[in-house]
Amino acid sequence: MKPALGKGLSALIPQKGKGGDQPPGRTGQILDLDIGSIKPNKYQPRRLFKDDALNDLISSIREMGIIQPVIVRRTADDSFELIAGERRWRAAQHAGLTSIPAIVKDAAPVESLQLALIENIQREDLNPLETAEAFHRLIQDFNLTQDDLSRKVGKDRATVSNYLRILKLPGDVKKMIAAGSLSIGHAKALLQIENQRMQIDIARKIVQSGLSVREVERLTRKLASPGAARTNKQPSRDPQIASLEEKLIQSLGTKVRLIHKAGNRGRLEIEYYSLEELDRLLDILIQ
Hints:
Number of domains: 3
Distance between the termini: 60 Å
Largest sheet: 5 strands, mixed
CATH topology of the largest domain: Conserved hypothetical protein from pyrococcus furiosus pfu- 392566-001, ParB domain
Order of helices and strands: EEHEEHEHHHHHHHHHHEEH
Oligomer: single chain
């Protein structure tokens, strides 16, 4: 990757006074391009374009025009493909503009994705799932290692690794992340549990009860290996009792201990880790 990319998107935008006498279409010059000649980038990392934010941008463009040019690269059919600025391009279309200021940049597909990713990361525009998917695409499509990726996007390797791990979560959980209902911290905590059904159940409880990351971390630590703890203490436990206990754990989203004694007696232990967690459990149990 070119060293300029580490300086952010500002390194790609020509300074005022440069390129004014260049012939039309020369790389690096700010041009007014026909909106119809520009197509979206198939490597665009952003998947979610929120209507409210886009409507605000449309109103701003109608009032003030486009202040910052989009960045494009020329394609083989002599049209242009977006590198950065898809929200501005979409909003300009909705605002009725027929042309848009653009900078033509020489960029291969890998650079195109890197630039789009860097721009959105710098603006904190991507949700965690979009960032994770973009990281995965850079690794898979362009044969980058996690160390390569870490250097190129300016994130430490542990951060890159954590983002990639959330792609292992079930689809229902990833939808909650994409919608902004779960943070990257919540996602990391859920990864402490291997059971996907339990991950989904806890994710739903996070959304319903507004559990903090710290509360979820405590909960998942308790639930991470209940089987291992039981195996050490009672290696020959009744499988029916173990199955009932597992169902209760999944239903309540917390650690449950079912102790069955002779004479069909026993006790049921349900753990909670905060008053808010107790309130949540009471809401479930007392109906």
